[in-house]
Design goal:
The protein is of the alpha/beta class. Helices cover 33% and strands 23% of the residues. It folds into two domains: 3-73, Ribosomal protein L30/S12 (60s Ribosomal Protein L30, Chain: A, 2-Layer Sandwich), CATH 3.30.1330; 81-244, Alpha/beta knot (3-Layer(aba) Sandwich), CATH 3.40.1280. The strands form two sheets. Strands 7-6-5-10-8-11-9 form a seven-stranded parallel beta sheet, with helices on both faces. Strands 1-4-2-3 form a four-stranded mixed beta sheet. 37% of the residues are buried.
Length: 246
Amino acid sequence: MEDIIYGKNAVIEALENNRTINKVLIMNSVHNDTKIDRIKELAHNKNIIFRFVAKEEFVKYKEYNHQGVLAFASPIEYANLEDFLSKPHKNSSVVFLDGIEDVHNLGASVRACVCAGVEAIIIPSRRSVQVNSVVEKTSAGAINRISIIKVNSPVNALQKLKENDWWVIATDASAKDNYYDIDYTDMNFVLVLGAEHAGVSKSIMNLSDFKIKIPMATDFNSLNVSNALSIIIFETVRQKNKKFVF
């Protein structure tokens, strides 16, 4: 089954990052601009079929904000945890999303992770959204710039990471430490975030080496996952930049 990638930026990112694209459709009423020119150039150079089609061809895809551009791609290839761990890592970060149910949250989280230099995102194979065209669009194509690892057992995966000298940091609204109280600069760490309504599961919380929270100015505790992730992960970037700038 093919994945549908829609929108100019997402299609460009997929082409530039060597997704296996089977064909590209461009609405013939779309005015040429630098992005359309780039799509045509990339498709031509990679010998990927691209066709200009009538507006009526896009009616069946009206639920997508496609901007007159669609690419049909082979499903994303998930990375393997063992392969990831076999490579050297130093002061690296991984994000584990525990039970995220909203595709837009996943897409926005992927985008934040890529911007912050996170090496991989881990998601469970069950009780969690998977990568689809909406995730790809929401991530603005960032999904093609980071390893996505899918695991059957979150607990086993995190235990394996711990055995390979990764520290597990879980978010918990009742934690004692604030997110900026931790020194992230001298370790490989896995940042675990859970869904808004459920949070991080108890079994994963019991595995964690640190528990952190984002302090709130009011009792309206309603940050979504991608917001919380961005706040924490860019604190890690700030700390590392401060430490390693000479």
